[in-house]
Structure formats: C-alpha cells, structure tokens
Amino acid sequence: MTVERVISETKDQFPIGMRVLAVDDDPTCLLLLDTLLRRCQYNVTTTSQAITALKLLRGNKNKFDLVISDVHMPDMDGFKLLELVGLEMDLPVIMLSANGDTKLVMKGITHGACDYLLKPVRIEELQNIWQHVVRRKKFDQNDWYNSGSQDKPHMGSGEAAGIGKVDQNGKLNKKRKDQNEDEDEECDENGHDNEDPSTQKKPRVVWSVELHRKFVAAVNQLGIDKAVPKKILELMNVEKLTRENVASHLQKFRLYLKRISYVANQQAHMVAALGSADSTYLRMGSLNGLGDFHRLAGSDQLPNAGFRSFPPSGVLGRLNTPAGLGIHGLPSPGMIQLSHVQNSGNAGNDQSKLQSFVIPGNHNANILLGMPMSLELDQLQNNKGVRHIGELPTADNTTVFPVSGSLIDARVAGCSNNPLLGVTSNSLMLEGSSHQAILHATNLRDSVSTMVFQNGNTLSDFNCIAPASNQLRDSKSNLQGQASLISCNAGPIIRSDPQEWNAPRKDAPYQSNIMCCSINSSIPVNGAMVQLGQCLDQNNPVFHRNMDLDSIGPPNFVDPLSIKHNKGESSAMEPLVIDKEGYLIVQQRPQGSYIPDNIGPLGDLASAIMKQDQDKGKPADGDFGCNAYSLRNCI
Amino acid sequence: MERNPMRRQLAVMRQSLFDQGYLDEQFVQLEELQDDANPNFVEEVVTLYYRDSARLILNVEQALERKPFDFNKLDGYMHQFKGSSSSIGAKKVKAESTLFREYCKSGNGEGCMRTFQQLKKEYATLRKKLEAYFQLARQAGPMETACHPK
User: How far, in whole angstroms, is CA A292 from its chain's centroid?
Assistant: First the structure.
C-alpha cells in the first residue's frame, strides 16, 4: 500500500516533517493516529488530553502546523478546543470523530474546523491534510517560509470569514465564503476588512444600530429601487465597510421589507401604535398592567373581538411577561428581516393597514391599535378601565389593541382622548373586541397612536410601529406617523429614523417605503417592533430599524394589531417583530390567528410607536397626532 | 522461507476472521502499518484496545445497573467504544455498539440491555480469536521475511 506520499513540494520538503499535534482521549485511536501520521512522515506529537494540548500550543505558537483533534473528549469538548485553537493560535484544526452525523459535521465547520474526518481514519486521508496548512498560509500575504506571518492577522486573512453565521444578536455576519477555503476559525473583528477581500478572511461586520441607521438613511435617500450597494456604501461613508458587506446587508433588508409588506398587506393591521410616550409605557414588561392585559386579552374582556387574530390569552400571556413582550413569539428570526413590504395590499386599504406592531422586548409595547389603550397603558394599568377604548378592556395596561382596520378608519384619528383609544378602539379595535391582543403598551399611552388609524387616507398607514422603547416614547406623534407608516396607501412610510415616524405619510419618499421604525432606543421595548403595516406602498419595505431595539428581545409580534378592516377581512395583523436589531419584523399571521403571544409585543410596539410619536411631539400627520395625542390625553 | 505450515494455518485463521465478519478491512490497514520499525504493531494496538475497552464495558455495566438509565451517558460510552472498535476493525462489535446507540437514542432500555449482552459476547469471542491468532503468529514467525526466523 502506498504508505506515504512523500512529495516535496517545497524546498524544505514540506509536507514531510509537518508538525502535527494529535489529540484523542482514546488510546487505541491515538496510537493508530500516531502511527498513521508517522507513516505519512509528519512530525507527530500526541496527547490524550485537550488541556495538555492547549498548553503545548500556547507554550510555543510556532511549534505546530496543524492540529487534529477528536470531538468527544472528557476534559474538554472538541469543538471548544477547536475554537480556542483557532482564536488563539489560528492554526488549522481537523476534527475527528466516530460519529459522522451531518449536524456534527456542520457544527465542526461552523466552529472553524478545516476538515472533519471519520474514524477509523485511513491513511489516504491523512496524506492530504497538509493542504490545509498550505492553504492557510498561501493566502497569507507572506511567503510561507517567512512565516513569521504566522500571526493571526495574516493567517486570518487567509480565510474568508465565511462562516457566515448570522449572529444571534442580530449581527449580520458577513457571509463571505472563501473561495475554496475551509472555514476558518471565526474572527470576531468588526467591520474590518483585510487587504485582499477575495481571499482573505473578512472579519465580520456588526451592524450596529448606528450603522444600520446610516444604511437605512442611505437607502431611503436613494430610493429602495435604486439602492445599490455601491451607492449605499458611498452615502454611508463608513470606512472599512465593503461593498460586499453592504450588499449582503441590503439583501437581508430587502427580505425584511418583503416580509413586512406582506404583513402589511394583511387586512388587519393592528396599529399598535401605542406609543407609550414614556418609557414607562414602554416598559411594558413592567406593566403590571400586563396582567391586565390578560384581561384584556383574553379573557373575556375582549369580546369576540374582532381580532381574531390574537387569541386573547395569547396576547395576554405575552403581555404579561415582560419577557414576553420581547418579541418572542415572532417567528421571525431575530435577525433582521427585511423584506420588501409590498404594499400592494395596502393601497387601498386605508384602513387598516395597520400593522400590528409588535413591540418586542419587554415592553409591552402596547400597540394600541389605535387604541388608546395602550397609551394609557399606564392608566390602564390599573386597568382602570381605560376602557376608552371602547371595547377594549384595557384593563390592563397592556392591552393590546388590535387595531382593526376598521377601527382605524374610524376614529382613529379620533383624537378623542380616550378616544383615541376609544376611537380606535371602537373602530379599531378590534372590532369590538378589545380583547384582542391589544397591545397595550401601557406605555403607549401616548401614542397609542394611532396607529394608523387614519385609515383613511393617509393614515392608513398605520404604522404603528411601536418602536422599541425609545421611539415610542417620543414619538407619540410618531406613532401616528408611524401608523401612517402603515398606511399603505399612504406614501411609504419609511422611517429611517425615529423622527421620521411621522413622516411616513408623506408620500413618500418611499414608495417603496421602507418603513423604518426608527425606534429610538428610547423605547425600552425590546424590539418593539413597530411595524408598519402595510404602510408602504406596494413596495414599501418596511424596515424598522433604528430602534434601539437592542432592548428588543426576541421579536415579538404583537399581533394584536390585527386590524380588522372594515372590510371584514380578518387580516391578521402581522405581528411585527422588532428584532434585536431593531428591525421590525412583521410577521404575517394567518388570519385569525393572531399571535397571541405577541400581543405583548404589540402592545409594546404600539407603545413604542406611540412613544415615538410622543417624543417627536409632532403628530404624524396631524391625524396621527391626533390619535396619539388624544390617546395620550385620553388616557 | 519455507512454507511454514503454521504460516498457512495462520493465513487460514486470518481469512476466516474476515469471512466470518469479525474483522473488516481496517484490520488490514493495521497490518499494513506494521513493518520492521513497528513489528508488532497490530498486536500492540489490539492489546491496547482490549485494555481500554474493558474499562468502558465496565462503565456501561455499572450504568445499566442504575435505574433509570442515563441514556446520554450510555450513549457517550458507546460512542467511544464504537470509535475504538472501528479503529481496529472489530466489525461485529462495532455493529452491536451502533445498535446499542440506536436504542439509547430512542430511550429503549430493554433494547439496550439486550444489545449490550450481545455486544459483550461478540467482544469476548473476538478477543479469544485474536489472542489465538497472535499466538500462532508469534509461533509462525514473521510473515514477510524469513531472514530472521523467530
């Protein structure tokens, strides 16, 4: 049998003499591996303990060229070792295991292994492992021999940060696959490009709120249709950001908008605009009103609620738990979901395109669908009955009002004080059923905004986007605006920044509207998502971001906003979930199936939105303002 | 290099181990690694295997005595056992350990116990056979060269 392939590729006889460190707790396998490797003419060091291996490696970084490690070890998980080696020493690591499950292999790769071998290992496989060393070094700008360049930066550059994982935190990792590179160990640098983009490992870019805001602003400026990575990049003017970073982010954004628009198209929009002006309001979570929410939600309070979408209980549940508020329920991934919001639906709906905003995170973003409820969530808290909202039991602060489309038209604009809530509530609400998931962002108080009640026309945009926390607060008016965001008909509501909430209505700079909920961080809501429902015109992508949603927990959709259109469509409000990134993710809920759990978020959302409005102080369009304010006042 | 009858016997024995499914071609790989520098490699590895796996077997035994079964742990042991068994080419043993793991995954305690008994049997049988084989091999002398008859 061919034992080894002693092919000297390089003057120094590499791969002969390549220094390998083999780690395996199983002595049989270790012995076998050792023998095999020696047969390949490598220079082999073995150890049965991962800890020892690390010590050896740390002792002298240049002592080894390659590490082979078993996955299953008693003292340390093989993957952990893999990561550490990759991070600290940046050496190629090959995993070895008797278990060839795809999942495990995947895990190995994502942790940065450059190869994954199955036991029993054959010599042929080992004969080629030197390629991983070469590959890594090759892209290193330095000559292999001079390897002093073993240091990380260089080594790192060899591989693209192709792991392409999207961080759970919503970081957008640049998914950059190295040409044929094995995934390298992860490199956590931010936004830092290496010299040779094509072959080098690119550190991941973290799309912070700020960065994202810039991005959205740039996109808005260009117009979603015309936004191309190159131009966006130019506008953003951030150094060390590459076109590729932007491109991949844009792609995600578009998906998000699409999703939003889809949701927005749903009839029922919940305008959760609860913009609770204050953080308190946003703090849905804290609302103990949430409990109330229960009430609202579901329990009986809500009369059949038009909302169908949210099962009250569901909502309640959500609201109750601050955590719940977070956007958890949202299916949408924490990641930013950008999808184009097609507004196709909305056009025309003035009403309701309320989107239910889900106020993610803790806040119960009360998404008042216009329902003042949320606004007053505080008030509601005691549930005193904030009942303004007509139906809404608002008992709890967190009532989430699903904003029914119909409501929206109604009065939403109702500036009536409570009316806003009430108004909305009536109309919106949920069709009467306040139970809906009214998001009650207790905080929303302010803004309950209106989510868009405007239904009619401009407002239709309900954009109740309950921005996460901050936004809501300020924007009470924003909420309104936000709501308008939703209005699909109305112009695109693109809110790239918080203040813009109101803006939505404007015809939009975006038709495609990117609805950005720029929810300021003010909104504690986690993710209060404010989603703009339909607002955007056909293609308005709704994009919320800006929210400092960091607080946004898992996107919760507050579905409560299902806005019932008078049309009777039971559009489920898609829960908007504002994910961590602050993207408002609107989750399309099947009709009638509101996301119960989301209610919470909606409330938050609403509140968030409201808040936003409030903060902004300017009614979105006047209409909104009304709502918001009124709501506020009402409450 | 006279054709040693022992050698022939050894060959036959070896072949039967393969034919009966006790060993697979991983064993051949081991043999190929054996050379002058490493004249007893195969035996060394096998001995090491038996030593190490005895420990694992004991662990499994003990784990199976504790009810309810800790399937995760059992699976862990068996995973290791499988790894080393496959490294020496112990085919039947490996199959039993795979089966055992399946039962672990599905939480089938009965199945685990049954399979484990079977596994122990196979393991013991193989051990006996290999010991006989090595013994004969030692007596028969080195296979390749007749230069230095043992």
Answer: 28
Q: How far is B48 from chain A (nearest CA, A)?
A: 6
B29/A72 touch (CB, cutoff 8 Å), yes or no? no
CATH number listed for the domain at residues B5-32+40-139: 1.20.120.160
Which of A28, A121, A122 shows the shortest C-beta gap to B88? A28
Residue A195 maps to a domain: no
Spatial distance between the Cα atoms of A112 and A117, rounded to a whole number of angstroms:
14
Q: How large is the angle between the packed helices B41-65 and B71-88, nearest 10 degrees?
A: 170
SS3 sequence, A118-140? ECCCCHHHHHCCHHHHHHHHHCC
One-letter amino acid of A621: D
Q: Which residues of B touch A68 (CB under 8 A)?
A: none
Give kind and range of the element (H or E) at residue A97: strand A93-97
Measure B47 CA to nearest chain A CA, in Å.
Answer: 9
Domain boundary among A272, A290, A317: A272
| CATH number, position A215 | 1.10.10.60
A114 and A220, same structural domain? Answer: no
Residues of A within 8 A of B83 (CB-CB) are 26, 29, 70, 72, 97-98, 119
Q: What is the pLDDT of residues B20-60, one digit of tens each?
A: 999 999 999 999 998 888 888 999 999 999 999 999 999 99
Which H or E run contains A102? Answer: helix A102-110
Rounded to two decimals, the pTM is: 0.41
Residue B149 corresponds to which tokens in the numbers above? 């008859």
For B87, the closest of A29, A72, A99 (CB atoms) is A29
Residues A58, A59, A64: CA angle, nearest 5 degrees: 75
Interface residue of A23, A28, A41 to substitute, partner B, most B CBs within 10 Å: A28
Global ipTM: 0.89
Within A415-493, where are the H helices? 417-419, 470-474, 476-486
| Domain assignment of residue A72, yes or no | yes
> What pLDDT shows up at residue A249?
84
Q: Which of residues 104-133 of B touch A (CB under 8 A)?
A: none
Please count the other Cβ atoms lying within 10 Å of the Cβ belonging to residue A100: 11
Q: Rounded mean pLDDT of A379-396? A: 40
Mean pLDDT, chain A, rounded, equals 54
* Average pLDDT for A132-155: 57
For residue B118, give how far its alpha carbon lies from the nearest alpha carbon of chain A (Å).
21
Cα separation, B150 vs A151, in Å, equals 53
Asked whether A425 and A439 are in contact (CB, 8 A), the reply is no
DSSP per-residue letters across A234-295:
HHHT-TT--HHHHHHHHHHHHHHHHHHHHHHHSS-------B-SSHHHHGGGG-THHHHHII
pLDDT level of residue A203 (50, 70, 90 thresholds): low
Name the token pair of A487: 């209005």
User: Quick one: what percent of chain A has pLDDT higher than 70?
Assistant: 29
Q: Which residues span the domain enclosing A23?
A: 19-139
Task: Residue A114: give its domain's CATH number.
Answer: 3.40.50.2300
Residue type at B95?
Answer: A
